[in-house]
Amino acid sequence: MDKPLFNALLQMGDDSLVLGQRLCEWSGKAPTIEVDLSLSNLALDLIGQATMLLDYAGQVEGEGRDADRLAFHRDAELFRNSLMVEQPNGDFARTVMRHFFFATYASALYEALSKSSDETLAAIAAKAVKELRYHSEYAAEWVVRLGDGTEESHSRMVKALDWHWRFIDDLFEDDADWAELAERGIVPLRATLRGNFGKRVAQVFGEATLEVPGEVWPLTGGRQGRHSEHLSLVLAEMQVLPRAHPAATW
Amino acid sequence: MSDWQLWEVFIRTKGGLDHRHAGSIHAADAEMALRHARDTYTRRMEGVSVWVVRSADIVASDPGEAGELFEPAESKIYRHPTFYQLPEAVNHM
Amino acid sequence: MYTTELDKSPAGQPVTIEDPELLAKFEARVAADDFIEPKDWMPEAYRRTLVRQISQHAHSEIVGMLPEGNWLTRAPSLKRKAILLAKIQDEGGHGLYLYCAAETLGTSREEMIDALHSGKAKYSTIFNYPTLNWADIGAIGWLVDGAAIMNQVPLQRTSYGPYARAMVRICKEESFHQRQGYDLLLEMVNGTPEQKAMAQDALNRWWWPALMMFGPPDENSPNTAQSLRWRIKRETNDELRQKFVDATVPQADLLGLSVPDPDLKWNEERGHYDFGEIDWAEFYAVVKGQGPVAQERMSERRAAWDDGAWVRDAADAHAAKHAARAAA
Ligand SMILES: [Fe+2]
Ligand SMILES: [Fe+2]
Asked: In degrees, to the nearest 5, what angle opens at C-alpha C124 toward C-alphas C122 and C128?
């Protein structure tokens, strides 16, 4: 088995899966019905990406596991998603801030991956990049509206920023497996995407009248399976039926 | 606890067709109105292009004047191609 | 569904004296299957009845997102999760189309939402029942959406143009809802004994509430005659209910599930199924807001609207700033 590729696919697939699951929690609770529909569309894209990436991970592994097997029958410490996506939704400000960071990172990643030497991955990325570019623009508009909206919305955005800023390093972490894949031309080093990410954040924050925070002590470990308290709860809910009825198909 | 203003949504379902009224949505600004129009009215690939316009900006004719506005056209049947009976050989014109 | 008129208090309504000539013209147009459009003259009672019916229908779509949303984060496969999310999203869209149709009659969405949250407006009784296991998601698609379709298809030719057009759009989307529900149950009845038991349990709990969705019996629907004349309603409650039972019982047989009604049997003479008496006391209690999870549903809707207030205000404030800057 190509273990570095398997791990990389889990990292990407789990990011989409866990964030999609988090967005499902918004269903029926958004500020207006229109926003409810929009958040559902974002979640549908993410669940679709997770399905493709995890199915491919299962193929690479070669032990007969498909996306569902990987999604519903794996414990938290075997998940490879970033810490940011597993964070609770919080208020709409926190959800929007997370989505802006994640989609801006991920759209740059999939843009590069659409030229991957791995054809399957390149095809998945070509589809995902269109979706994630839309997500990034959508979230950026909301960052601007809420940052430069009312006093209340501004202060909520400052708090949201404070919540998520410490997870940015984790989002961009290149572990040894990823670095090996980069060497083989299959993925880009995430570090190479950081410069453009910083520029985009500065530009959007400028419009949003938000300040880019200074250095904070970064929290990392998601890519190695060292998660926050939140992930096992997310999974306990998500996995309850398949775990309770292992012989069942749905 | 206000709601956003109302917009009318027009969708071109495929290249070569006119935009057609699809319905309305609420949004605070034009960019948001486009996003909401897309998420509400093109969930099943119903569109290739979307227009939005503030409902308040639409000027509509008064149905009470429909008689004056539209009935005069009824007598101008010479505007319709079927008014002209041409010889068989050229009647496909 | 949801279009059954639930609060009927003609006594409490102010009586408007209409111009007999306009009224006669209006009635003639409706009788001739013409469509009435927003700026056309219409009697006040028609406008009022429509606002009530369309907004009730819209509220039902929106509240109806909640029972299914209850299982969204626990959907047992990625495919089922995506299907359910898309389905719930469709219901949100239906609510949105319908609020917009009602707005053309001069009532703002905000007013309608306030009426829902204050308990003044009603919504379909079905959504005040809890979803207790995964098979409930199948039962809702099959029975609740099935009942809704039965009611909605004829409304595509209702007399009010914006309502009819909203219904056309909605009906196009509904058949997927019913089919995915039935498909979900098919998978379960062919699965483990536990899965099959869940499916039977779901049918046991949803059957009677689904029959109640068609509203009170005809002899207790005083506005039916007027609504039929105005083409706001196209068939009576009891006619639709019978149609639903006739269509659904063979589908239950195919699933190998038993309908929880000892009086249910085919009546050769009538060419219809006979079925047992509906518990109308329960129905009226649920209409009054005493359904098992009515309080949960309403508090969730209110919380969503209230928690979103700062977001709506901020977006408006930003738009105003933007416009001011563009003008300067
Ligand atoms: Fe619906
Ligand atoms: Fe439906």
From this structure: 95
Domain boundaries, chain A: 3-212+225-244
Domain that holds residue B13: 5-61
Task: Flag if A37 and B4 touch (Cβ within 8 Å).
Answer: no
Q: Are C312 and B2 in contact (CB < 8 Å)?
A: yes
Structural domain contains residue B75: no
Rounded to an integer, what distance in angstroms lies between the CA atom of residue A250 and that of residue C134?
10
The string of pLDDT tens digits covering residues A164-179 is 999 999 999 999 999 9
Q: What is the pLDDT of residue C225?
A: 85
> Looking at the domain assignment, is residue B14 inside a domain?
yes
* Residue B85 located in a structural domain: no
Q: Is B26 on the interface with C (CB under 8 A)?
A: yes
Residues of chain C with C-beta less than 8 angstroms from the C-beta of A249? 187, 191
Assess if residue B55 is contained within a domain: yes
Q: Which ligand is nearest to the CA of C147?
A: 2
User: Nearest bound ligand to CA C140?
Assistant: 2
Domain count, chain B: 1
A interface residues, B as partner, C-beta within 8 Å: 32, 34-35, 37-38, 41, 138, 141, 145
Write out pLDDT tens, residues C185-239: 999 999 999 999 999 999 999 999 999 999 999 988 877 888 899 998 888 999 9
Contact C240, C152 (CB under 8 A): no
pLDDT class for C1, splitting at 50, 70, 90? very low
Residue C155 Cα to ligand 2 midpoint, Å, equals 15
Question: Domain holding B34: CATH number?
Answer: 3.10.20.520
Q: What is the pLDDT of residue C4?
A: 55
ipTM of the complex: 0.97
In this prediction the pTM is 0.94
C65: alpha, beta or left? (left if phi > 0; alpha if psi -120 to 50): alpha
HEC states along A89-143?
CCCHHHHHHHHHHHHHHHHHHHHHHCCCCCHHHHHHHHHHHHHHHHHHHHHHHHH
How far, in Å, from the CA of A93 to the mean position of ligand 1?
A: 29
Q: How is residue C287 annotated by DSSP?
A: I
pLDDT in tens, C253-280: 999 999 999 999 999 999 999 999 999 9
Please give the CATH architecture assigned to the domain spanning A3-212+225-244. Answer: Up-down Bundle (1.20)
pLDDT in tens, C137-158: 999 999 999 999 999 999 999 9
Cβ–Cβ contact B66 with C under 8 A: no
Q: Which of A27, A39, A52 to mutate to test the interface with C (most CBs of C within 10 A)?
A: A27
pLDDT tens-digit profile of A99-144? 999 999 999 999 999 999 999 999 999 999 999 999 999 999 999 9
What Rg value do the Cα atoms of chain B yield, rounded?
20
User: End-to-end distance of chain A based on CA atoms, in angstroms?
Assistant: 29
Interchain CB distance below 8 Å, A40 and C88: yes
